[in-house]
Structures are given as C-alpha cells and as structure tokens.
Amino acid sequence: MNDITIDFTRPGLLVSVRNVAEAQTALAAGADVIDVKEPNRGPLGAADSGEIANIVEAIKSRVPVTAAMGELLELDPTKRCEPSDSRIPSGISLYKLGLAGCGSMSNWQSRWLQIVAKLRDEPPASSAKPVAVVYADWRAADAPGPEEVLRAGIAVGCPALLVDTWDKSAGGLFEHWSLGGLQDFVRQVQRERMIVVLAGALAGDQIRRAASLGPGLVAVRGAACEQGRNSAVSFDRVRLVKQLLADSELSEIAPGKASKAAPY
Fold it and tell me: Are 200 and 221 in contact (CB under 8 A)?
C-alpha cells in the first residue's frame, strides 16, 4: 500500500516502531499508520533497511508504512548507496528527512531535490514520496523556518508535512508553538492539499490538543511505549492514545480566526 488515505473528520494515529514485534503490537492495538524509526539515532533516526523491509513484510499492506530516513545533511547526494546504507525498501508510502543544520545553508532546497531523486532512482526503485519536515524548535535545530519548509515542500511535491520537535528533552510541541499559531499554520498547509501530521513528544492532554487542530494524523513514539521512547511499544498505551484521539473535539477556533499569539 503506497497511498495514504486520510479521513479528515477524525485524526488518525501514527505509531513509530523500531522492529517487527513493535509493529505487530501497534497494529493490533489500532494504529492507522506504522512508521519505522530508530529512536537511538535521533528524532528521525533511520532504522536499518533490512529492518524496514521486515516490518513492511510483516504488516502485509494492512495499513500504510512510512519511514524516517535521518537528517538531510547525513546523506551525500553525490554518492551511490552502498549495500549497507539506509535505503527505502518497496512498500514504504512516505519517508521523512529532517532539516536540522540546513537553516544556515543557502542551497538546502537543491540538496533536498538531489536526495529525493537519488532515493527514487537507486535500486530498488521506490514509489515512496517525501514528507516536508518542520521542526517546531527550528531555531535550536538550525533548521529552516516553517514557512520556508512549506514553500519547499510544495516545490518538491510533498503530499504531507510533519511538524515535530528536534530536541526531545526540551518539552513537547506546545512548549515551542502556540495553539493559535499552530492552528493558522495547519490550515495554511491544508489549503495546499497536504496531509498534516502533528508530533513532538506528545502525551496526555497534548495529544488531545493536537487532535483538536484537525490534522490528518497524530504521531507518537514515547506515548506509545511502556517507559519512554527507548522502551518497547505497549498494546495498552497505543489503545490509550487511540482512545484519546477518539474522545478529542475539534477546536472551536475557526480557520483564519486563530489567536494572534506568537506563532513559533
């Protein structure tokens, strides 16, 4: 399954997993999308390509599978992938590349285009599409700002945009972006017909708050794990997050009428 269909009447749940056992647990507990990452390698740490392929095989197209592929600056657009390098196996719908360190680069957009072309053309050729990644703590990450990433994502042809946090120890999404400001940005992205994915150390009431903004997906790792993002995914924790999404109410802030608080 290479396409992600989103019912915008209720946000779906994306759970990030690191192995087949976690993927099967998340799927059984009701995850709408399985995302593959290795949390020990950073906020968008890439799992080994073999592990990604194993998860795709285990899921058997029952739900879409996406993958984190690390940071853009970790990949060299001039070199061919070696067999041991991270690559995108068949069966991945979307992949994410972080933009940490790109804020001070004048040519990061062209580098991104080169990497997208390389990942598309390297064998096995993949139909996976890139996701535009906005870090809510973009200044700390030395990443491009949200508006700049959105413009570049439109140019690259990204079907989705992820809002995440780079430094997982520095608080969740709403410690870095006001509710009203984020609401404005979500509506702006949706006007471009892009799927909005909200993440960033979300837990408890922050999950409800994120869901209230009407994204296509709410993404979690730590909230789905037994004892933090480096522990195993828990069936009961995934079910709890799923219930939080089901119980959430859409924000009463109408599009275009969001609070004028500092957006980020």
Answer: no
The packing angle between helices 20-28 and 49-59, to 10°, is 30
- Render pLDDT for 214-262 as a digit per residue (tens, 0 to 9): 999 999 999 999 998 999 999 999 999 999 999 887 654 434 333 333 3
Which amino acid would we find at residue 5?
A: T
Question: For residues 245 and 11, is the Cβ–Cβ distance under 8 A?
Answer: yes
Distance CA 175, CA 202 (A): 11
Q: By three-state DSSP, how is residue 124 classified?
A: coil
Q: Report how far residue 243's alpha carbon sits from residue 220's, in angstroms, rounded to the nearest whole number.
A: 14
Give the bridge partners for 162, in sequence order: 133, 197
Backbone angles phi, psi at 110, to 5 degrees: -70, -35
Q: 176-220, pLDDT tens digit by residue?
A: 999 999 999 999 999 999 999 999 999 999 999 999 999 999 999
Euclidean distance between CA atoms 34 and 67, whole angstroms: 8
C-alpha dihedral sign at 111, 115, 117, 121: positive
Give the count of beta carbons closer than 10 Å to the beta carbon of residue 167: 16
pTM: 0.89
**C-alpha neighbours within 13 Å on the C-beta side of residue 46:** 20
CA 92, CA 72: separation in Å to the nearest integer?
A: 18
Q: State how far the Cα of 31 lies from the Cα of 14, in Å rounded to an integer.
A: 6
Angle at 21 between CA 199 and CA 61, to 5 degrees: 75
DSSP structural state of residue 192: T
